[in-house]
Each structure stands twice: as C-alpha cells, then as structure tokens.
C-alpha cells in the first residue's frame, strides 16, 4: 500500500465536497457516527478537513436497541473516538423493534425513519443554540449507491430511483410556527469512494471500527444484494459498482433537467382549485397535447405530490391510468390510493381528494 493513500483519499473527498458545495465556511456539520467502518472513515476525514474548510464538527450516535451488548459496544466505541479527537458527541437511544411493530414497517425502514427523526431533533437544537447553517453528514459510499440503484430497479421504480442517492438532499425541519422552519442539507461526502477505499484508508490510519453482525443476515433485502448479487456481477464486470454509480449520476442529471421542464409546464398547464375545502389540480389537455409522454407522466407525479406526503402506494400503473384519461371522454375516472381520484372533464383532467 502506498504511504500517501490516506492523503489521496482525503483529497478526493475534499474535491467531491467542493464539487457539490456540501459545506460552507462557518457551517455546523453533524456526522452520523455508528461506529462502523463507513461512519468512522467519514468522521476521520471530516475531522481532518474541518480546520481547512472552516466548519464545526459534531457527532451523533443512535443506539437502535436491536443488538443488545453489541449496540452498547458500538456506542462506547463512538464516544471514545470522539473524546480522543475532541469532537462534541451526543447519543440517543431508540427502541426500533417496537417502532417497527407499531408502524408495520420493516426494521430497516423503521431504523432509517428513527435515525433521521433524531438527526432532525439534534439539528433543530443546534440551530436554536448556534444559529448556524446545519449539515447532516451520512456515510453512504459507492457500494451503497449500487445497492440502492439495484434495489430500486427490482422494485420497479422510475428514473428517480435509478438516480439513487443524491450527494446533497434538502430537508425542511419544522418549528411551532412557519417562521421557525429551516432547511438542513443531508450530505454524502463518501459517494465518491468505494468500500475497498474506505477499508484501505482505515488500515493506513490504523483506526479500528465495529462490525455489525446483522450485515451478514440475508433476511434483509439489501444484504442479499450486497452479499450475493453484487459479488456475482463483479465476476462478470469487476467495475460493476463504479459503472452503476456513473449511471446513477447521469440519471440524476436527466431527472434534474426534466424537473425543470415539468415545473415550467406546471405553471402554464395546471390550475389549482379549492371548492368546499376539497383541493384539486386541473391539467389542461391542450397545453400538454404536444408534450412528450415522459414529461406529462412526470407532471402527473408532480401534481400528486402536491396532494399527498406519502407517495409509497402510488404505482406506475396508476400513473399510466391517469395518463390514459387525456384521450378518454368526459366522466371517465381513475380511483387512487390516499382517497384521491382522477377524472376527465371537458378540456382538462382533474386530480383531487374525494369528498
């Protein structure tokens, strides 16, 4: 191993941070520190960059209450790492199995929701205290990106799913009043690194990390992709992870372009209407007649997202059925999840809440 590998990886990550304008001078960055290899790598790199880039670093650990003594080991390790590096450390405990049971979610989904809820809570406390720009740094890397893209593909998601995780995602954290709302960017500085690079970096830094034994449990869908699918694909093409990551980047660029076109079309072709406290959106048929099918489909999705927060149960079939209404006669309709209905009227397709 070359002696300057650590420096090159830090430099590579710094350039990626600059490319996507992830961190500004004076920001407060909260790194999610689980104690695993990925988060330890991210913690160390950010700690080395904080003086140069002029930001303040905090670490947040979430004990999910899943793995008993192993969870306590991870928490103790994370705390010791922060103390050694003089980084402010906070730990939260959450009973994720109980949350999963109460909500009907999988452990993976419940854990993710709990994690981000606690990130939001901590970010809000920091914001109220420091009044600085808050960034939440998570340790997703190229292999995670490849897993996400493959998982989304087999679930039947569209271009947004193929785009995988964004380097920067904006989240709005609400206060008691609208004026107290503020935006927090979730940043992913390690999307430029592979898992192999992360392990090499930690070896050169001579830094330990905790191993999550549940990563070997193939009862989890993502673990099946990680442990079985990607290794098999690597036998066909050793640069599988790299190529999927590049495809995801191109898909995100395409989606960003389409989103701009959809927003322009929304402003000219869609009318918001409210009657008897029922909100509806009317899409003018003439305005979309000459638009490409993919843009009109994305417009339909954009309209639906104005009406509902949770988009999970809306499928490609629902979108196609709504699209088909533009060529149907007046009175035809499509019933949708979340008590929505799309119906054809003279000159427009209306999507609204059912009375």
What does this protein look like?
Helix content is 52%, strand content 18%. With 355 residues, the chain is α/β, with parallel strands linked by helices. Strand 9 and strand 10 form a beta hairpin. The longest helix has 30 residues, at 240-269. Residues 175-179 have low confidence and may be disordered.
The total beta strand count reads 11
Overall pLDDT confidence: 89
Radius of gyration: 23 Å
Main sheet properties: 6 strands, mixed
* Percentage beta strand: 15-25%
* Number of helices, where a helix is a run of at least 4 consecutive DSSP H or I residues: 13
Q: Which word captures the global form?
A: elongated
- SSE string: HEHEHEHHEHHEEHHHEEHHHEEE
- Spatial ordering of strands, largest sheet: 3-2-1-4-6-5
Low-confidence spans: pLDDT under 50, at least 5 residues?
Answer: 175-179
User: Could you tell me how far the N terminus lies from the C terminus, measured between alpha carbons in angstroms?
Assistant: 67 Å
How does the SSE layout of this entry go?
Blueprint: H1 5-19, E1 28-32, H2 37-53, E2 56-63, H3 69-84, E3 89-93, H4 96-103, H5 107-130, E4 134-137, H6 142-155, H7 159-162, E5 168-173, E6 182-187, H8 195-205, H9 221-236, H10 240-269, E7 270-275, E8 278-284, H11 285-288, H12 293-307, H13 316-324, E9 333-336, E10 340-345, E11 348-353
Parallel strand pairs: 1-2, 1-4, 2-3, 4-6
Antiparallel strand pairs: 5-6, 7-8, 8-11, 9-10, 10-11
Helix pairs in contact: 2-8, 4-5, 6-9, 6-10, 10-12, 12-13
């Amino acid at each position: 191993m070359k002696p300057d590998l650590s420096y090159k990886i830090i430099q590579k990550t710094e350039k990626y941070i600059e490319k996507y304008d992830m961190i500004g001078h004076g920001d407060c960055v909260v790194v999610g520190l689980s104690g695993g290899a990925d988060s330890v790598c991210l913690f160390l790199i950010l700690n080395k960059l904080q003086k140069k880039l002029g930001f303040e670093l905090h670490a947040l650990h979430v004990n999910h209450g899943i793995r008993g003594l192993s969870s306590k080991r991870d928490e103790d390790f994370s705390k010791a790492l922060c103390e050694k590096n003089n980084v402010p450390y906070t730990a939260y405990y959450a009973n994720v199995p109980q949350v999963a049971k109460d909500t009907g979610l999988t452990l993976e989904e419940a854990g993710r929701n709990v994690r981000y809820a606690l990130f939001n809570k901590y970010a809000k406390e920091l914001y109220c205290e420091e009044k600085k720009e808050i960034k939440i740094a998570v340790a997703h890397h190229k292999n995670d990106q490849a897993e996400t893209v493959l998982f989304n593909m087999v679930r039947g998601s569209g271009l947004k799913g193929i785009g995988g995780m964004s380097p920067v995602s904006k989240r709005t954290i609400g206060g008691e009043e609208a004026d107290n709302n503020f935006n927090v960017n979730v940043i992913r500085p390690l999307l430029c690194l592979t898992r192999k690079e992360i392990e090499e970096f930690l070896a050169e830094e001579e830094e330990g990390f905790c191993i999550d034994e549940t990563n070997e449990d193939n009862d989890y869908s993502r673990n099946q992709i990680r442990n079985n699918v990607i290794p098999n694909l690597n036998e066909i093409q050793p640069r599988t992870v790299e190529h999927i990551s590049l495809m995801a980047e191109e898909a995100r660029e395409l989606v960003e372009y389409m989103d701009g076109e959809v927003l322009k079309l929304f402003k000219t072709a869609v009318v918001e209407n409210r009657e008897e406290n029922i909100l509806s959106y009317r899409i003018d048929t003439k305005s979309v007649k000459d638009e490409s099918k993919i843009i009109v489909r994305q417009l339909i999705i954009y309209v639906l997202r104005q009406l509902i927060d949770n988009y999970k149960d809306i499928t490609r079939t629902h979108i196609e059925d709504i699209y088909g209404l533009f060529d149907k006669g007046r009175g035809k309709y499509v019933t949708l999840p979340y008590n929505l209905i799309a119906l054809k009227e003279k000159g427009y397709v209306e999507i609204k809440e059912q009375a």
